[in-house]
Amino acid sequence: MLTRVLKTDRHNPSKKVLQEAAEVLKSGGLVAFPTETVYGLGADSFNEDAVLKIFKAKKRPPDNPVIVHISEMDMLKEVSTTIPKRVKKMIEDLWPGPLTIVVPRSKKVPASVSAGLDTVAVRMPAHNVALGLIKHLGSPIAAPSANLSGRPSPTNARDVYEDLNGAIEMIIDAGDTFIGVESTVVHVTENKSVILRPGPIPIETLRNYLNDIELHPSILTGKFEGTPASPGMKYRHYAPKAEMVVVEGTYDRVLEKIVETVHDYLKAGLKVGCIVSEETAVKLPSQTLIEVLAPRNRLDLIARRLFSALRNLDRRNPDIIVAEGFPEEGIGMAIQNRLRKAAGYRILKV
Ligand code: TXA
Ligand code: MG
Ligand 1 site: residues with CB under 6 angstroms? Predict the structure, then answer.
């Protein structure tokens, strides 16, 4: 299959491009498109055959459900049967934005979208290309991140192309995404609310709407017991080819430990890769393969660079990767979650 790449402006997308892409979706094809978080791989969510193609193209396990993207509140009623009251105020304030809610699924949404669960994950993305595409299609778009299963999510069209060239009809290239890590996923019922995946909307903000909100325990440990609440939890994510370790603790000690560990690995003759802040990068020996994220206090920029840094490092083929841990406040919780997953929860606490 020939994968067409159409370029457009992220703020003012061309109607012609959106029209062409919507035609592909209408005829049951797949289109990768940018959202404010990462690029998504879209299909018409009401077309089951098209949705099944997503799983095939990504090599995604069929028991891992995908997110349905909407462009207006009315679409929420099409995809879900009931919305808990306390969710309404929250989404009025936070949508469009990087927040996904898990709610009861309506019959109109094919079971394969939700991997057979009776719930559906929904969000309204804050990106004019994504919103415009949904509007041109006239239906919600089912879309997981547009990477091969297990790889870091793509934050630009080149990364989508690297994973999915030849497997999908079209990629809309509107440059880098704004945020860089995937949306926060929350499951809310009348009497319980749980964060299934930490993301750009931090727990601190969600507490204003859901005072009982908790982190799912597996987010901290990487382990889950019984049936995972969110099937995505149990899969290895973002895994670079090389083994990776995250060094966590207060910064002085983290810096010391990273420098020490890197020297040890270099002495052992290994090719060492590092994913670190600017402050740390300048302290590392010149033989190190360094991916610089941003200054340590700019968690927003660190989130934006994180996945492309992981992909870049992978291209440079290190034997071992040492990553710097960051404070778990605000979007830092999402950064830490992705780093730990990429490292298979190999954490060095200092
Ligand atoms: O920012 C994002 O959320 C991006 C962009 C493209 O919107 N999408 C994304 O999709 O990250 P994906 O499929 O890579 O991640 C969806 C997550 C998975 O962890 C999945 O298990 C969970 O949401 N999920 C989806 N439907 C669910 C459901 N009904 N119940 C529980 N978890 C669900
Ligand atoms: Mg994904």
Answer: 35, 37-38, 40, 64-67, 98, 100, 102, 114, 117, 119-121, 125, 143-145, 182-183, 185, 196-197, 230-232
For residues 141 and 257, state if they share a domain: no
Residue 47 has pLDDT above 90, yes or no: yes
Mutation pick for ligand 1 pocket among 55, 63, 67 (CB with most ligand atoms within 8 Å): 67
Mean pLDDT, the chain, rounded, equals 95
C-alpha 105/C-alpha 112 separation (Å) is 11
The domain containing residue 256 runs over which residues?
243-349
124 lies in the same domain as 263: no
| Amino acid, res. 325 | G
Q: Are residues 143 and 249 in the same domain?
A: no
Same domain for 171 and 266?
no
129-160, pLDDT tens digit by residue?
A: 999 999 999 999 999 999 999 999 999 999 99
Instruction: Supply the pTM of this predicted model.
Output: 0.96
Instruction: List the end-to-end C-alpha distance of the chain, in Å, as a whole number.
Output: 50
* Whether pLDDT at 228 is above 70: no
% residues pLDDT > 90 (the chain): 91
- pLDDT in the model for residue 236: 65
- Give yes or no for a contact between 23 and 30, defined as CB atoms under 8 angstroms apart: no
CATH number of the domain bearing residue 288: 3.40.50.11030
Report the distance separating Cα 103 and Cα 93, nearest Å: 18
CA dist., res. 57 & res. 106, Å (int): 26
Q: Is residue 99 part of a domain?
A: no
